[in-house]
Amino acid sequence: MELGRIRGDIGRWARQTGVPEDVTIDLQLAVGEAVANGVEHAYGDDADGTVEVEMELRDGRPPAVLVRVADRGAWRPEPESPGFRGRGLLMIERLARRVRVQCSPGGTEVCFEIPFPA
After folding, report:
1. Is 67:53 a contact under the CB 8 Å cutoff?
2. Which of 31, 61, 69, 79 is 20 to 30 Å from 50 by CA-CA measure?
3. What's the pLDDT tens digit per position in 58-103?
């Protein structure tokens, strides 16, 4: 998994588009969790799986970063007792708005937005 590279790419993109630093950190955390969930839940031990990340800056009041993270794997149900795990989606919901998870036979898509002051 290349989460370090993804976080670096997000940081560069955010600087180029004028996203504030504190929002960039939230964005890196939320996208990192969504990517990690996609890898773990969709592919398991299969290292050949990919996860797509798309981000778009939306102008408006307030402006926001729109995010889409998608995999092409088969969603596996959560274990009955996740122990200390299983808080990734909760973290995304705390950092972002309009969080949506769509599962289908063709994969899973997680979409959300992170607004910030203009």
Report:
1. yes
2. 79
3. 988 899 999 999 988 876 666 666 555 567 888 999 999 999 999 8
Closest CA relative to residue 93, chosen from 47, 36, 26, 45: 26
Range 78-116 burial, b when 16+ CB lie within 10 A, else e: eeeeeeeeeebeeebeebbeebeeeeeeebbbbbbbbbb
How crowded is the C-beta side of 39, counted as CA atoms within 13 Å? 14
What ranges make up the beta strands (E) of the chain? Answer: 51-58, 64-71, 97-104, 107-115
pLDDT tens-place string over residues 26-52: 999 999 999 988 777 666 665 567 889
At 15, the pLDDT band (50, 70, 90 cuts) reads very high
Residue type, 77: P
The pTM score is: 0.84
CA atoms within 13 A on the CB side of 71: 25
Cα separation of 48 and 83, whole Å?
A: 27
57 within 8 A of 16, measured Cβ to Cβ: no
